[in-house]
Amino acid sequence: MTTIPARLARVTRVAHSPEQARAAVIQLYRDWWRGAPEIISIYTLNVTVPFFRQCIRRRFEENRYVSDTRSIDHLVLRGRQEYQETMNFWKNTDHIMGILLAPKGRPQRSFLQKFYEEVNLVLAIQRHPRGWEQGKPWL
């Protein structure tokens, strides 16, 4: 299958208002939604179209509460790039299954959350009667 890279190319636009950003997100979502059957047939995926669309929806829902127009523009740019690479068959099946369909793992922790976990670990070691035993923590 030959690909025509320019058929999906779009000029990068900067949204000057939340309404423009919302319109760009909706257009990208529609492109992914309409391209789902073609993506499944191109990559011969063993998933149904509704399941693939549900995964697309989940990916968009992850960023639902982003309100900064610059951040939205960046996400739309990355989403458009992913769409173009997917539709032009520039990815392997593993990329599609791993990136698009895999659920997100553990949520990212902030600096303070990591710091408090370390402090709690140190306090727990200090409270233990033997503390460090032969170079290993009791936990």
TrEMBL record:
Protein name: Complex 1 LYR protein domain-containing protein
Membrane topology annotation: Peripheral membrane protein
Alphabetical list of Pfam families matching this protein: Complex1_LYR
Family: Belongs to the complex I LYR family.
PANTHER family per record: NADH DEHYDROGENASE [UBIQUINONE] 1 ALPHA SUBCOMPLEX SUBUNIT 6, NADH-UBIQUINONE OXIDOREDUCTASE B14 SUBUNIT
UniProt keyword annotations, A-Z: Electron transport, Membrane, Mitochondrion, Mitochondrion inner membrane, Respiratory chain, Transport
Subcellular location per the Swiss-Prot or TrEMBL entry: Mitochondrion inner membrane
Residue span(s) of domain Complex 1 LYR protein: 24-83
GO biological process: response to oxidative stress
Organism for this UniProt entry: Hermanssonia centrifuga
Domain of life: Eukaryota
A Gene Ontology cellular-component term: mitochondrial inner membrane
